[in-house]
DNA sequence: CCCGTTCTGTCCCGATCGGTCAAGGACGAG
DNA sequence: CTCGTCCTTGACCGATCGGGACAGAACGGG
């Protein structure tokens, strides 16, 4: 018994997300969000509350999608191949991102880790999710003899995660595709040898 | 034959830098900079031009200091110890930074890589400087038999650089001191073994 | 068909944004 | 001491900020 929403809430959040990804939290104004989503300022405000909540929704959606993408990546392969596949995926995404928009997790923590505990926690959760999948794959790899038996799979997983975050960061700092790929293969060599 | 500057230009830039490091470019207003530096708005503008130039000066100073600190780190040690010392240094700094202020290179590229080629170039230069020092140390380590002779020192240097950037990023995303240290030692094991 | 409810667009607000400028003060050269 | 030069201060600018108020449109239950 009321007028229904004309817009897709999820679509609006997604549009807001791309805006935030490009210009950050402080750098994105409400009018930018209005333009990005196509909604009126009133609708935006009515649906989500304030700017902070819109960002939180956008960031949460990004992390949720990242989690799903991680699951998908590790569903397609197992063992060492899965771990290296993840690294290759990150490297490829970084190289493809010629505009240097970059990963939202990095951007959000870089900008807001000082002031928002919520952002830190959400980011931590998503990264630990990756870590878990990596550790699982590496443990399997160890059983199969693909990886030396003396190393702790959990430590190796964290190391690989750090490498992937590093590749992302270096990509945004102007490192070339060749340089990034050389990091990826060096990591593969160090693990697989 | 004129009234001299009452303030130290470098001190003002340094004060502005800490403000930018905390709240980013867009998140730091001119009044914030006035408060941080203690200068009047007019003096700031007169001395540096606009906000963008102040940031550029601050970021440039940060990178220059980082370069100097890198030289100092690699002057104190050589070979594998120097490379691992650098990694330990980054890890320690990240752990000590409980407020999650973080490295300005990461922050600046995260926020401005999309819009400012200058930031990307300055960041790239500073990171390549680290890479060069790492590569040099690792080549020496290889001669001394500390590192396997089959690996390319340049690739290993990039890998280590990526790990260090990853540690920085993970620290800002809430990773604990133990977790970060475990990454550091895993990297050491992988290299030294 | 009608009314209550919710959504939407627009106008408005005080605050603050980045940036400018005129007035006056402080200093050094002569 | 005087004067020219540069610096500092603080008021001020238009624009935009995030947020809110509100009238009216669109819809569903009765």
TrEMBL record, chains A, B:
Q: Which PROSITE patterns match?
A: HTH_TETR_1, HTH_TETR_2
Is Signal tagged as a keyword? no
Whereabouts does the entry annotate DNA binding, in residue ranges? Answer: 29-48
Q: Is Transferase included in the keywords of this UniProt record?
A: no
- Please indicate which superkingdom the organism of origin belongs to: Bacteria
Q: State the UniProt keywords alphabetically.
A: DNA-binding, Transcription, Transcription regulation
Q: Which Pfam families match?
A: TetR_C_13, TetR_N
The HTH tetR-type domain sits at 6-66
Q: Which SUPFAM superfamilies match?
A: Homeodomain-like, Tetracyclin repressor-like, C-terminal domain
- Name the InterPro entries for this protein: DNA-bd_HTH_TetR-type_CS (IPR023772), Homeodomain-like_sf (IPR009057), HTH_TetR (IPR001647), Tet_transcr_reg_TetR-rel_C_sf (IPR036271), TetR_C (IPR011075)
Q: Which PANTHER family match?
A: HTH-TYPE TRANSCRIPTIONAL REGULATOR YJDC, TRANSCRIPTIONAL REGULATORY PROTEIN
Question: What is the official name of this protein in its record?
Answer: TetR/AcrR family transcriptional regulator
